[in-house]
Amino acid sequence: MDILKQLLGRLHPLVVHLPIGFIIAGLLLQFVDRKKKEFTKVISLIYLWGAYVAVLACITGYLQYLGEGYSFNSVKIHLWSGIATALCCFILWARLATVSFAAMLQKIPVLVISGLLFVLISFTGHQGGNITHGEDYLVEPLPNTLKAALGYAVFEEKEIVLSETDWESAVFYTDVIAPILNNNCVSCHNPKKAKGELLLHSEEGILTSGENGPVLTAHHPEKSDLFLRMELPKSNDRHMPPDGKRQPSKEAIKLVETWIAKGHPFTTTIGELKLPKSLFAPYFPKSEVMDYPPTEIAAAATDSIHYVKNFGLHVAPISEGTNYLKVSALNLPTFTNADAPYLNAIAPQIALLDLGGTQITDDICTALAKLPNLTRVQLDHTQLTGSQLEQLKSLQYLKSINLSYTNFKEEYLSVLTECKALEKVVLFNPEHHKTGTEYLNNGKTAVEYGNYTLPVIASDSIVY
Fold it and tell me: How many C-beta neighbours within 10 Å does residue 181 have?
């Protein structure tokens, strides 16, 4: 029986649109027929059908309230206004159909009942939307200043930023959990608007409030409603925050789970709880990844840049605010070792160099070693074997080297570990038997072999 109640209750979002459609259709026909009165019988029949489905919507809505854990205070206005809407539909039908048992209704102007019905259906629908999406759903995109002017509570987002050096000294609740709750929950669970009689803005509220009792069970996240509702799929009506509201990230939900599992302490530091640093990875300052050295360099002479461009190489600034350059031989596949001296004109400014697909050999390493600020270099689709890569160890800023589809011999791979700043070596080549990623230099340098094999899925065999 409970299953049937839940099933019928979940039909409410579908059924509730039927009375809205009938009522709006009836009101529009009334407006069109206001002078000739040709469609009065049809309009009265529309309102009768609207009344029937409005009653059905009330029943399914009530069943949803019983089965989904809503508090009565949160649904009572919507419920009573829905009942009033159904009753008003019956009254308007009786008035237009001039039924004998409702002769007294003939004294009431149709326009008055129609206007009341329009107000009721609008108000009822608005209340239902508030239950589903929250009272501030419509104004949520507005700037905080405008929301405050309209009388809505404004909650400033609290950013979680942990220090790389003393992250363990941060108080787990104050510096991590409280901002998560503030950013995702407090807009609906605060002293001005306590949905489900739950307050999540303070320690006292978290521990004692809640229509159905406390939402935390120390050391048992699997028994704590605060965590369980976050973890439910968004399609579930019990999921919190409701659909349309900002949702916490998976990492944030994991932190809430960990906090409850540790007994939901309010004053204990991360270090005292002995929590791993990996839990807090998203909340450490993101270091800016630059494709050029962190030092300033004088701008290359305009004549020098034109000299290199006129030879056929593409030269462009890496970004605004820096004088470092990227140079590419994309349109000059005939580039050889003998052409390397052209790079000397702007050697100090070259940070990115693409010589892929050219005629260079291992001897090019002698020229590359003369580019002191080289950060990333592409040597793919060339004849390199790697025999002279040792010369590159003098490049203190070299972070990445692409040797895909070359004749590279893995016996020279260990030479690259002497490049102190090297982070990535790309060695895509179907002829290599290795796949995936390996690490050198104690995990500091990633060697990417590619050759990934994707699993075959059913749709791969479909012919369109």
Answer: 19
CB atoms within 10 A of CB 120: 21
122 backbone dihedrals φ, ψ, rounded to 5°: -70, -45
Residue pointed to by tokens 């009792």: 213
Name 310's Cβ contacts closer than 8 Å, sequence gap at least 6: none
Mean pLDDT of 209-220: 90
How far is CA 225 from each of CA 66, 94, 238, 249, rounded to the nearest angstrom?
18, 48, 10, 18
Residue that is written with structure tokens 């204990």 in the block: 268
CB 316: neighbour CB atoms within 10 A?
A: 12
Q: Decide if pLDDT at 339 tops 80.
A: yes
- Read off the pLDDT band of 192 (50, 70, 90): low
Phi, psi (rounded to 5 degrees) for 344: -60, -25
User: In whole angstroms, what is the distance from residue 9 CA to residue 431 CA?
Assistant: 61
Domain of residue 336, residue span: 302-450
Residues 6 and 57 in one domain: yes
Owner of token pair 């074997």 = 385
What are the two backbone dihedrals, phi and then psi, of residue 193, each rounded to the nearest 5 degrees? -145, 95
Strand arrangement, sheet containing 445-450: 314-317, 325-328, 350-354, 376-378, 400-402, 424-426, 445-450, 436-440
The DSSP bridge partners found for residue 326 are: 316, 352
Tokens of 7: 């099933």
**Which residues, in sequence order, are CB contacts of 137 under 8 Å at separation 6+?**
129, 130, 244, 245
Q: What is the domain count for the chain? A: 3
Joined together, the tokens standing for residue 412 give 């020279």
What pLDDT does residue 287 have? Answer: 58
CA distance 150 to 388: 70
Shared-domain flag, residues 267 and 376: no
**Kind of pairing between the strands at 445-450 and 436-440:** antiparallel
Q: What is the DSSP letter of 41?
A: H
Is the model's pLDDT at 14 over the cut of 70?
yes
- The reply to whether 271 and 307 lie within a common domain is no
Reduced to 3 states (helix: H, G, I; strand: E, B; else coil), residue 316 is strand
Residue 459 lies in a domain: no
**CA of 4: how far to CAs of 43, 60, 235, 238, 283, in Å?**
34, 11, 19, 18, 45
The tens digit of pLDDT for each residue in 367-378 reads 999 999 999 999
Residue 226: closest CA among 207, 204, 244, 243: 207
Say how many Å lie between the first and final Cα of the chain, rounded: 46
Strands (E), 37-142: none
406-410 long-range CB contacts below 8 Å, 24 or more apart?
406/379, 406/380, 406/381, 406/382, 407/383, 408/384, 409/385
Contact 356, 332 (CB under 8 A): no
DSSP 196: G
